[in-house]
Amino acid sequence: MLIDTVAWVRIEHGRILCARPRGKDVFYIPGGKREAGESDLQTLVREIEEELGVLLDPATAEHVGTYEAAVPGSAPGTVVRMACYTAAYRGEPAPSGEIEETAWFSYAHRDLVPPVDQLLFDDLRAEGALA
User: Fold this and answer.
1) What is the rounded distance in angstroms from the CA atom of residue 116 to the CA atom of residue 127?
2) Residue 58, exposed/middle/buried by CB under 10 A (0-12, 13-18, 19+)?
3) Distance of alpha carbon 96 from alpha carbon 75, whole angstroms
4) How far is residue 90's CA from residue 45's CA, in Å, rounded to a whole number?
5) CB 6 within 8 A of CB 58
6) How many C-alpha atoms does 72 have within 13 Å on its Cβ side?
7) What is the spatial distance between Cα 107 and Cα 61, in angstroms, rounded to a whole number?
8) What is the CATH number of domain 2-126?
9) Average pLDDT over residues 112-127
10) 3-state secondary structure of 33
11) What's the CA gap between 24 and 47, in Å, rounded?
12) Which of helix, strand or coil describes residue 70?
């Protein structure tokens, strides 16, 4: 089974914005699952507005990479695919809706995110974008 997701990569001062959904103890790169018929950018804009209350500018979106990894605790063969984008935004990111809290993570926090997010952390560290 494939879980198709899109995520917003927001880095400031060598740290990446992460979010923890209500009722969970794991942080993720903000974003979420695609709904039927949605493009990457439509999913991204909708999910980030729902989760963080900010409006992304799709005209500024840049693809960072697409990552796939097994999902811990799921049925064997369950894989998540995460298409990652940067984008300019309006507003101040803050937890809303299903998000309990946000945090800014450096590479030292890599073990606090799921395997698919860890792949992004590795690439960002190799590029010198993540402290």
Assistant:
1) 17
2) middle
3) 30
4) 11
5) no
6) 8
7) 23
8) 3.90.79.10
9) 97
10) strand
11) 18
12) strand
The SS3 assignment for 43 reads helix
36-81 residue pLDDT tens: 999 999 999 999 999 999 999 999 999 999 999 999 888 999 999 9
The structure tokens listed for 74 are 């799921």
Are residues 3 and 116 in contact, defined by beta-carbon separation less than 8 angstroms?
A: no
d(CA 110, CA 62): 23
DSSP state for residue 93 in the 8-state scheme: -
Amino acid at site 121: F
Amino acid at 119: L
Query: Which residue type sits at 50?
Result: E
Query: What 8-state DSSP symbol labels residue 82?
Result: E
Token representation of residue 53: 């209350």
Closest CA to 15 of 33, 27, 32: 27
Nearest partner of 129 among 6, 12, 8, 7, judged by Cα: 12
Is pTM beyond 0.85? Reply is yes
Query: SS3 for 91?
Result: coil
| Cα separation, 87 vs 73, whole angstroms | 31
